[in-house]
Amino acid sequence: MSDNIFAEFLETLKKLDVDMKESQIKVVNGTMNVMKCAVVKNTPVGVYENKSSKSTKKGKKKSKHKGVKRQGGTLRRGWHLSDTLTSKGTVRKYLINIVDYAIYVNNGHRLVTIIEGERITTGYVPGQFFLEAAVKTAERALPWIYDTELRRVKAKHGL
C-alpha cells in the first residue's frame, strides 16, 4: 500500500471536516471485502478419486457412491470476516480461515515419513500463496476504494 495515497486520503478528509471514523470503517470494510472475494476465488479445491469401490464375486467393481465423485471445498468455505473493531482511533477487521490446515496449503509444508520411530522428511509440497495474492489485489483496489469514499463524503456534504 502506498503511504502517499493514504496520507492524501486522510488529508482530504481532514480538509472536508467530516466524521473520520465512519470513513475509516467504510474503507476497511471495502478493502476486506475485496480481499475476501480474491482469497475465496484463489483458494484451491481438492478433487478426490472414488476409492471406496469393492470387487464383487464376479470381478466387477462395485462403488459405494455409484459414480458420485467426492469433491473438496472445505478450505474455500472456511474464509470469514470478523466484525469491524474500533478502538483508540484505529479500525481493525480480520480475515480468518477456520480450517486448521489452511496455513500449510498457503505456505507449503514438508512431507514426513516415520521409519523405525524416526521422522524423516521425504519431500516438500510447495505453497499456493493465495492469501498473498489476495493482499496484492486489495492493495491495487485501495485507490478506487478511497476515491469512492471521498465521492460519497462530498455528495453527503454537498461539496
Notable features of this structure?
alpha+beta, 159 residues, 5 helices, two-stranded antiparallel sheet, 8 strands
Could you explain the architecture of this structure?
This protein is α+β, with helices and mostly antiparallel strands and 159 residues long. The chain has five helices and eight strands, in the order H-H-E-E-H-E-E-E-E-H-E-E-H. Strand 4 (85-87) and strand 5 (90-92) form a beta hairpin. Helix 1 (3-16) runs parallel beside helix 5 and helix 2 (20-42) runs antiparallel to helix 5. The chain starts with a helix and ends with a helix.
Question: Could you give a short account of the major beta sheet?
Answer: 2 strands, antiparallel
Spatial sequence of strands, sheet with the most strands: 1-2
Shape estimate: elongated
Question: Unreliable runs, pLDDT <50, ≥5 residues?
Answer: none
Strand content: 15-25%
Class by SSE composition: alpha+beta
Supply Rg. Answer: 24 Å
Tally of separate helices: 5
Question: How do the strands and helices of this protein lay out in sequence?
Answer:
Layout: H1 3-16, H2 20-42, E1 53-55, E2 61-63, H3 74-77, E3 79-81, E4 85-87, E5 90-92, E6 95-97, H4 102-107, E7 108-115, E8 118-126, H5 130-156
Antiparallel strand pairs: 1-2, 3-6, 4-5, 7-8
Helix pairs in contact: 1-5, 2-5
